[in-house]
TrEMBL record, chains A, B:
Heterotetramer of two alpha and two beta chains. This is Arginine biosynthesis bifunctional protein ArgJ. Keywords: Acyltransferase, Amino-acid biosynthesis, Arginine biosynthesis, Autocatalytic cleavage, Cytoplasm, Multifunctional enzyme, Transferase. It comes from Thermodesulfatator autotrophicus. Pathway: Amino-acid biosynthesis; L-arginine biosynthesis; L-ornithine and N-acetyl-L-glutamate from L-glutamate and N(2)-acetyl-L-ornithine (cyclic): step 1/1; Amino-acid biosynthesis; L-arginine biosynthesis; N(2)-acetyl-L-ornithine from L-glutamate: step 1/4.
Length: 388, 388
């Protein structure tokens, strides 16, 4: 576990299903960076955090609540988030600006400020380096399981730790919401690189998953680096990036696996594309197609749907050159089906809980992948329930 | 009914559910125009028709088959379509180039050419001006009902008829597929205007509906003008355009109403936008959001989902100015919820089979609308069934 951090979690009664306040605390100021939702409609904690990160790069704590997104709450919502940070800062003996907020839950309702403030003293009392699992549970909403991933790498004889904790099960869940991830490490990074490293990693992991194609108002990924271990030098940066990617990729897979109602985790892999952006765009369109996702649920290698989704991605390619595989089974060669026998074999592959759809464009050398899940009855059930 | 056309339909045994060959025949060459799928992957009949329409503007017949899309079938698929047209032309005593093809059904399978050719003689024998309903039934796939709309307008004392027949229930249905529409009129139009009139009308009607956001490889709209009545002069063109729009809008609503598994027909209306394109983009994103569509199914005025979908449309607007209505009930004012009481009233409006979501951006004077439906268990059921 990365040194320099403690965790805590309490139930303040905002929601019944789980604990609902989580705190990550750093003993001394630590480096921080954040990547946020691209949605034009941004929740109050996102707006507050973006303001903080624009001005400073040292932080002491992350406070997360589940049950209420504090989104579409206007000026009052911003004030609520600020008041809670001020109270926490006073109790932690730090500046309000050193606290990064995150919220997930219903949009359009005010935070239960008093309840949260009441819960802060026991939250602080409970701080401990071992309580990261409690924290992971506290931030869950419709999540079926807590999401934790970690890596240890050795650089110049020193062991460096990365811990990641995430929540998310639908881009915006019914009552609850959002994808949040908290990445902690005990090294430090060049200040001018930390944001870029985080952003690049998020773009290749959390930004390449889909459950329902919707983007939350609250999506947030924070990276805190405590600096207990030696700073990462430029020549070792790739080892660090690789480990951070692995942690993020694992958390991203957990989110899709836990997709609302999902029964399959499917990797859409585009190979031999002209460039990476085009590969991403095609992968994304296939990954979000309702007809593709229902075909996954039906375990049907209905490749016409894959090609039809690719064709509306807005990217030029030659349909008559495309090969498509389900795991190792080739079901399309040069744009034509390879026959019933291979479809039957592909159908068997699709009975597995995880499989890969590989699409070969034969255009160039770039590739990209996207993680998605199937669309089941339960997705509709979870999301169609009336909120009250 | 427009003069100069006859219809016929027969079952050739391609599919069991309905008749599966439909023919529209014109006694003498008639003006024709077509608008096709924007999907890069285009079915053989679409490629064939695009080639014909690029070279000529007079036609004698439209031949439609349901059960097989003849898409992703390569050179052989094109040859199949051409051979069928040649045989039909010989029997009708016209040129193969005077026949416009359309197909809907499974992607990736060859047309049962012999069966279709065998069915052509009885198809021709059956031709009659009264059989348009049989034709409408023959082209159905997962459609629950045949889709027919018509208008009669009077121009300079002469009665002009427009008849529209369509099929479609999902953009690409499970086994079956596609949106097809056939528009017939007994007037004629300036040759340099006919395509533009059709294209503009399609853009505002069939291109502003969604069931699942997928675009078929086979989507086709044909307009044939027999010229039995006086030609439409420029000063009367708006009356004709209005009537054509109404026919297309009515057919488009039927398609959404018949959306696979749909229980609600919802109009998303964006008002006071900066320009029409931006209004369309926002309406489209809201209309396609799974979370919005499941909220419709759940009759839940979950306006946070509407705002969140708008926010990812890639269009700039001020979330703090937005008002949202369900029918006449205002549920959002200046980006904030108007309270539980109005939500409860909106919930009652959403129990109706049709309702309107109006979104006021307060940016400018442009507006646009999009028709969508809810996402139900049955959509998943219909689309997740294994094809065999």
């Amino acid at each position: 576990m990365p040194e320099g951090f403690s965790f805590s979690a309490v139930a303040s009664g905002i929601k019944k299903e789980a604990l609902d306040l989580g705190l990550i605390y750093a003993e001394k100021p630590v480096q921080g960076a954040g990547v946020f939702t691209s949605n034009l409609v941004k929740a109050a904690p996102v707006l507050l955090a973006q303001g903080l990160l624009a001005k400073r790069n040292a932080f002491r704590a992350i406070l997360v609540n589940s049950g209420c997104a504090n989104a579409c709450t206007g000026e009052e919502g911003l004030n609520d988030a600020q008041e809670i940070s001020s109270y926490l800062a006073q109790k932690l003996n730090c500046l309000p600006e050193e606290i990064l907020p995150a919220s997930t839950g219903v949009i359009g309702e005010r935070l239960p400020k008093e309840k949260i403030i009441e819960a802060i003293p026991p939250l602080i009392e409970g701080l401990s380096p071992d309580k990261y699992q409690d924290f992971a549970k506290a931030i869950m909403t419709t999540d079926a399981f807590p999401k934790i991933a970690s890596r240890q790498i050795e650089i110049s004889g020193e062991k460096i730790n990365i811990l990641g904790i995430a929540k998310g099960a639908g881009m915006i869940a019914p009552n609850m919401a959002t994808m949040l991830a908290f990445l902690l490490t005990d090294t430090s990074l060049a200040q001018d690189k930390i944001y870029k490293i985080l952003k690049d990693t998020v773009d290749k992991t959390f930004n390449r998953i889909t459950v329902d194609g919707d983007t939350s108002t609250n999506d947030t990924v924070y990276l805190l680096a405590s600096g207990y271990k030696k700073k990462i030098e430029d020549r070792n940066i790739d080892s660090f990036k690789k480990a951070l990617y692995e942690v993020c990729y694992e958390l991203a897979s957990f989110i899709v696996k836990d997709g609302e109602g999902a029964t399959k985790l499917v990797k859409i892999k585009i190979i031999n594309a002209e460039n990476e952006n085009r590969a991403v765009k095609i992968a994304q369109t296939v990954a979000n197609s309702l007809l593709v996702k229902t075909a996954f649920f039906g375990e049907d290698p209905n490749w016409g749907r894959f090609l039809a989704a690719m064709g509306r991605a807005g990217i030029n390619f030659d349909p008559n050159k495309v090969d498509i595989y389900i795991n190792e089974i080739k079901i399309v060669e040069n744009g034509l089906g390879t026959g019933k026998e291979s479809e039957n074999r592909a159908h068997l592959e699709m009975k597995k809980p995880n499989f890969v759809v590989t699409i070969d464009l034969k255009q160039g050398r770039a590739e990209a992948q996207y993680l998605t899940c199937d669309l089941s009855y339960d997705y509709v059930k979870i999301n169609a329930e009336y909120r009250t």
